[in-house]
Design a protein that fits this description.
Rossmann fold, 3 domains, 19 strands, 25% helix, 5-stranded parallel beta sheet, single chain, alpha/beta
Length: 553
């Protein structure tokens, strides 16, 4: 019976999402989800239920999961309601990327470069002497399991497979049409292999994530990654970091405000291992009437972030490294480089000995250190920076590299572009009343196109790293503290200073194309600067064709 059911499930998963099951399994559960078992936002309009969990009904199905029997709550004669959640068991579910995208191509489950991720679903008895178990309560399961539940609508089927001899499961969504096609409703809800045994070891219940059974700091949760956001200047890399933080557990994080879970630093050519990890420093201490000098370890940002992450493994911690290419990053990381290899759960694949860090964090210099899965390391790099350090291939391999394009323009909720600015200059030198109006977004769109267009098509034939992002200049808006004139003066000063200088020195000078951004009779930066200060035309007719084309003229 068991093998017949498994054969059917293997066929369904292969046909719907191309999945080839590789593990051995010793129990199967298949459940059709009613409106009460799906998330509120996916329920039909007429649904009146407020249930927040998936109900596993029938005591015959309880053996699929280990569970905790809380006598003070489950004793029907003397049940104490406040004891219901005294123990909540979370079990690990492996979620498959192909299945998730089969169910919802827009899913927010973040698989990154992996084909699977781990979600943790809660398990507990529903009521005293109840024939119902609660699975995946929204307030007692992790974010991944909540996002997994978001894949399901009424009459979709949940398939759960228990990996043989482990407290570890694989979970899949099958849409209602496919479930009907394969007659899933006929599959027994709970189907075990007999004569199997699973040791429920509290130290290794999460897929043997604990490398050392005596190590209370071994990691239980999953998800951490190392990622570098790179692209031209002003593309909103810091804005992207804010979104990453918001989407990984700190919903209220706002740039500019201090948050205890976010550690941020900017690297520079003199930034070293001691600035990153820490070093032994002399400390002066008063001892009665005399002064003693002792030497003690002074931790820096990596060590502080690591200690904070290990102090509570259930909360995310973010280490933000701005401008990574401006420092010798291999020297900065030193032996920490070995920790950057992460396993599928987000923990360091290898632990290392570092006496100073171990003594500071664990009070035991013999402990091995590692990066836990709740510590996210996010760096930024500008591709246009000159005279910077080159990151070696081995280091790059240990980071996910995410390119932030200069041509991705961010809008407000209203649909208007963020950080736009309008200014006017004299179009014709001989006619002082002739004025042309530029807006920032259209200007950078046309500049970015002009920069990469081949010279035979009228452009500069340069690479994307010379392009300009939407936030290359951050414009000010008039408010109660800044007058309209003050905002206008500041914004135009940024155009004539920052933008024009960049275009002249870092873009135009690097092009061998016969075409130019600027008027051909401008022979020096001084000439260019004087013209823009007087708000006179500086752009060539060739470039203006690109600008007018971007405006739709």
């Amino acid at each position: 019976m068991f093998e017949d059911v498994m054969k059917n499930i293997r066929s369904i998963l292969h046909d719907t999402a191309g999945i080839m099951l590789e593990n051995d399994y010793d129990a199967i559960m298949v459940k059709e989800l009613s409106d009460s078992n799906i998330l509120k936002e996916n329920r039909p309009a007429e649904s009146s239920t407020n249930q927040t969990h998936i109900a596993i009904t029938g005591k015959v199905n309880f053996d699929f999961f280990p569970y905790v029997n809380i006598w003070h709550y489950n004793n029907s004669k003397n049940s104490e309601q406040e004891m219901k959640s005294f123990y909540i068991l979370q079990v690990p579910f492996i979620i498959n990327k192909q299945n998730a995208y089969y169910a919802d191509k827009q899913t927010k489950l973040l698989f990154l470069n992996n084909d699977q991720l781990i979600a943790k679903g809660s398990i507990k008895i529903s009521r005293p002497d109840s024939a119902q178990m609660e699975l995946g309560n929204t307030s007692q399961s992790d974010q991944n399991f909540r996002l997994f539940r978001k894949l399901f609508f009424e009459h979709d089927f949940l398939i759960m497979l228990k990996i043989a001899n482990k407290v570890e499961y694989e979970a899949f969504c099958i849409k209602s049409d496919d479930a009907q096609k394969y007659n899933l409703s006929s599959v027994t809800k709970f189907n075990p292999k007999r004569k199997q045994s699973t040791i429920v070891d509290i130290f290794t219940v999460n897929s043997e994530l604990l490398r050392d059974e005596n190590d209370k700091y071994s990691v239980y949760c999953e998800g951490g990654f190392n990622r570098i956001l790179y692209g031209p200047p002003g593309t909103g890399k810091s804005y992207k970091i804010k979104n990453i933080i918001n989407n990984h557990g700190i919903n209220n994080y706002i740039d500019g405000l201090d948050h205890p879970n976010v550690f941020r630093t900017t690297l520079h050519p003199e930034f070293s291992y001691s600035d990153f990890v820490g070093q032994i420093m002399p400390i002066v201490k008063k001892n009665g009437g005399k002064t003693d000098i002792i030497y003690d370890f002074k931790p820096k940002i990596f060590t502080e972030a690591l200690k904070f992450a290990l102090s509570d493994l259930n909360v995310p911690v973010f280490l933000i490294l701005e401008e990574m290419s401006r420092a010798n990053i291999a020297a900065v990381f030193g032996d920490i480089f070995q920790l950057l290899d992460r396993d599928v759960y987000g923990n360091s694949e290898y632990k290392i000995n570092n006496d100073l860090i171990a003594e500071y964090i664990f009070d035991d210099s013999n402990k091995k250190i590692f990066i836990p899965s709740n510590l996210y390391i996010i760096g930024t790099m500008n591709t246009s920076d000159q005279n910077v350090y080159v990151m070696d291939t081995a280091m790059k391999r240990r980071f996910e590299l995410e390119y932030i394009s200069a041509t991705d323009y961010i809008r407000e909720e209203s649909g208007e572009y963020k950080n736009n600015y309008i200014f006017s200059i004299q179009e014709n030198e001989e006619d002082i009343e002739s004025v042309i109006t530029f807006d920032w977004i259209t200007l950078i769109k046309s500049l970015n196109k002009f920069i990469v267009t081949k010279e035979e098509k009228g452009g500069l034939s340069l690479t994307e790293d010379k392009q300009i992002g939407q936030f290359f200049i951050k414009f000010k808006k008039a408010n109660e503290n800044i007058s309209i004139k003050e905002a206008e003066d500041y914004n135009f000063n940024q155009i004539k200073g920052k933008l024009i200088q960049y275009l002249w020195n870092d873009v135009q000078k690097h092009s061998y194309s016969p075409h130019s951004i600027f008027l051909e009779d401008i022979e020096s930066f001084g000439d260019l600067y004087n013209l823009i200060c007087d708000k006179k035309m500086i752009f060539s007719s060739n470039f203006m064709e690109f600008y007018n084309s971007s405006r739709g003229f």
